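Dear colleague,

Following up on yesterday's call, I've attached the two folding results inline so they're easy to grep. Please treat them as preliminary; we haven't cross-checked anything against experimental data yet. The first protein's sequence and structure tokens come first.
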Amino acid sequence: MKKLFSILFIISSFMTANAQKGNMVVISTDLGTIKVKLYDETPQHRDNFIKLAKEGFYNDLLFHRVNKDFMIQGGDPQSKGAPAGKQLGAGDVGYTIPAEFVYPKYYHKKGALAAARTSDQVNPEKRSSGCQFYIVKGKVYNDAELDRMEKQMTVKAQQKRFNEIAKERDAEVKKLVSANDRNGLNALQNEIIAQIEKEFKGKEFKMPEQMRKDYKTVGGTPFLDDEYTVFGEVVEGLDVVDAISKVATSVGDRPVKDLKMKVTVE
């Protein structure tokens, strides 16, 4: 019986180790190293980041955008060997990754690893850059500020629902527009608003307790939540993130002194 238990324990340990293998990456810089855990719940972002890291894609690229109360960003292939003063941030790998929001489980607390992306105007699906990423620095928020953000999240959800219903009734909308029936359009709008108010009554967005606690203590950038894919978090080296966030910068938040990175997979 003891022998069987030992065998099962070894198998279990092996499976656990294999499940975790490759989910840790180390970002090395002149200011220290940052160890990051990648989330299994965002598999496309995880696998893409690991693939690029193993290929050496990130080696010698720069943290090209740094803001002490916001984040540190890198991964632009055009930053490798870029001359001083060159505006960076437009480089890519020729593909994007579908958004993988796992919110509110994962959010923009300090140390969160997230994917950069282009604006909603040209990217309504909020697809991520295939290579550029950022690590959140952010700031600490108080209860009043977080209360306002909760209301904004509710309004955002209501607007999204409004657009969904309007799309479902697109034929009706087009018919009213074609007939220049403003009264009909106003009536339809009021009908949809009434439906949304009924659906959301008593269901206003509230931050989970741990999220609110994190934003009040370690800080972060809550205004980015549910807008950009968070696919990992710093498990060692937050002090290095702090150090990087404080370097002197010039135009475009580019560090005056180049800050190169090397990314390896553990």
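Below is the second protein, in the same order (sequence, then structure):
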Amino acid sequence: MPTPAPLALPGNLAIPKYTAKTIPFRDGETLLYRASWMGVPAADARILIAHSKVNPQWWTGVMWLNTSPVVDVVYQMRDVFRENFNYPSLRPNDIFIVQHEKQRLDQWRVTFDHPRSLVTAIKTSRHGKITTRRFSGGDPLGPFSGSIMALSQALRPGESLTFDVFSGGNRYVFAFKVVARERITTALGSFDTLKIEPWVLWLSEGSFRTQTRATTVWVTDDSRHLPVRISAAVFFGNVYADLIEVSGAPLPADAHG
């Protein structure tokens, strides 16, 4: 198969350069989020950020995404996302994704060639079919390094930020605005939070551009900016994903029952 020409980042996108400030996650910390729809548990996402034992200059972020037994009946999902990135520069080295959804079983391997501003994403299907995508331009981040970079910034109401991020075979340029301060209560306690609304400016492939406008994220209004709730509109109502457990590190200081 011929090597595809890289898809260039549009030249009219203004993407600022950020540097990591206060890192929101700690070595070995595990976060457990539970998604629910109309009060019914839908899925769990377990996220681990840890120092790499194999490559001392790397940190590794892993997320395991599993649907609940109720949802498994109609749509079973067992996905794994892993990213290796430099710490504290947060420049990504590689991404590995397993998408196991119903009968679908795809594996994505994404590598970053920073000197050439080139990203290569290779998908292998259950039956061995290989699909290659290449992207050029800019200095993109991965799903974990991008999230950490965004959360590490000094977020203030009224402020907007823009990021260039990869996830699997897709490249996203998205912005988000800190719209307000808001106190919310979850299973872990009550938190003073910053309410954030994201939207997609450019997407290499797919139809998620408008869906993010119906998404809201609440992060703690402290130096960590730990995400404690995510809300996303679906065909009927909203799906809420709440942080229900933190292990390996204490809760934010202002949490209480």
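For the second protein, one point worth flagging: Residues 226 and 251 are 9 Å apart (CA to CA).

Best wishes,
A.L.
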